[in-house]
Amino acid sequence: MVDSSTSHGVTNFLTRRHSTGDGNLSNTFILPSYPPSTPGHDCREFNAPEGTYSLAHSIFISSLQPLYTVGTSASLVSIKYKESTTNLQRYEAQPGAMNFRRMFSSSSSSSNGHNIHSTSNNIDSDDEQHVFGTTPSSSSSSCNNNHTSKHHIMPIPEDETSSTTKLSFLSRNHSRQHHSRKPKTSITKTNSSFVQKIITNDQLAKILMSRTSDDTNLFYNCGTSFIWMDASGNPKEPLSRTVFTRACPTSHDVNLLTRAADQLDLIIGFTSGDIIWFDPLCNKYGRINKGGIMNSTSITMIKWLQGYDNLFMASFQDGSIMIFDKDKEDELFHPDPIPNVKDKKLFKISKHPPKIASKCNPVSHWKLSYQSITAFAFSPDCQHVAIVGLDGLLRIVNILHESLNDVYESYYGGLFCVAWSPDGRYIITGGQDDLVTIWAFKEQRIIARCQGHHSWVRGVAFDPWRCDEKVYRFASVGEDAKLILWDFSVSALHKPKTKAGNRNRGTSVSSVNSPPLSSILATIQDKGPVIHPVLSKTEVAFLQPTVIRTIHSDPCVGIYFREDAIVTTDKRGRINIWQRPRQ
């Protein structure tokens, strides 16, 4: 059943308002105009080899003006977990390098005092309303040890030399048993001109009291607003909407380590470089990088570091990445000067002196480019991060050693999005060349280019519930408003005219003879990062799409996988939730 769009105004459910920006209207963020939607478009289902995906919910508030250049990113978070209590399932949703998951031991989760629920309940296939009813939010970057997944893909074993004790910026004063603090400033009573108002549902207290750990929260951005809704559309109105005066939200993330019935830690990045640490359950917040004191350029992506309730990473439009601690104070920061030259090997680390570093942000600052970093994604074991930018480069950085390992070039133009396969063996990227490209992490080479989009590719993600060691399912969305499903296996690749490699047809995708990771790391430490040149069309295999369907009337920016659904977002602010085929 398709829910009608939430297109009415918001005045019907207001109870608490707070406005501070009226006296500073000259500082109010002015949203640029945007093109009209494609008329007459109404996609309600699409077919795939496994069956028909049907539109279960379409969430859209027509009265909100979008920041069209950024679009909408979404996070779907529930409290209940379907895997065992010894694992913590990680789901990240954002445009571009969308999803990653890591498994933690029970001691990591319990050390913070958070009760991780588990259940073996199955979805009732006869229930029309089962979408988001019992399934947890989940990552598209890992399938390992998930009790509800169809297949098991084990991640690449951690190298003996890669120990968390060697974390260059995490091991100092950043324990995973860090005592979690909560934000202190009430967003309903704040005097800050940064927050214009918060609008809450007049039944919010009653709704929260009646909710269970099965219910799924939906968070998303649109224009100057950050919205909290029930993902199943009950109620259809937002639970809350926070409106900002001087900047627009661009990216956000929910900390799944600390999430509980009485706590949700969100970080929200803005066009001004500001960061809000926000708990919607108590309507309290804290500000980081206030007024852009450490970096005043727009945040392009923001994510919590796995296993930590206080550390997170943010990428910026000036080509830098910064690691922050939500519990530390802001401090004026000037990174070490470097020559303004184009260098693909650029990776400059800057930090505060030790006395300041113990109390102040940033924890670490990486300078990688003079063009915008657009997205990043953590490997399933969280030892590496894949970073893409408008300079057209895919960078692989070892987080443990803060070292740049590999640099790959796009076929043409900038890159917008990146994602890891569930086992950490492959990385996919998308960008201005209208291609999705598959890279082999351990082999350190390009595997294939995927042709099917007719405009820039804005979002990519793996589907962990349709991956095994022989076939990998992933998806992409682009500015052509299309969703494309791809099934990647060696036998599915079309070989170029010039032989691109010596892999035998019919072998497993994961059966690769490659040097151990320890030797690769040793080489990098001795000689620096490996720069991989662009290969021509005749040197690279290509992959044909499995499914192509226009699913939105506006350019798409986000694609996220859940056990029971696919979620897509666009530049206009619409979120579509597609129910998987019934088994």
Automatic annotation (TrEMBL):
Pfam families, per the entry: WD40
GO cellular component: cell division site; cell tip; nucleus
Biased composition (Polar residues): 162-172
Biased composition (Low complexity): 105-123, 134-147
Segments of skewed composition (Basic residues): 173-184
Record field: transmembrane: none
UniProt superkingdom: Eukaryota
InterPro entries attached to this UniProt entry: WD40/YVTN_repeat-like_dom_sf, WD40_repeat_dom_sf, WD40_rpt, WD_repeat_creC_regulators
Record carries keyword Repeat: yes
WD repeat locations: 408-449
Entry-linked SMART domains: WD40 (SM00320)
Gene Ontology annotations of biological process type: carbon catabolite repression of transcription
Protein name, as recorded: Uncharacterized protein
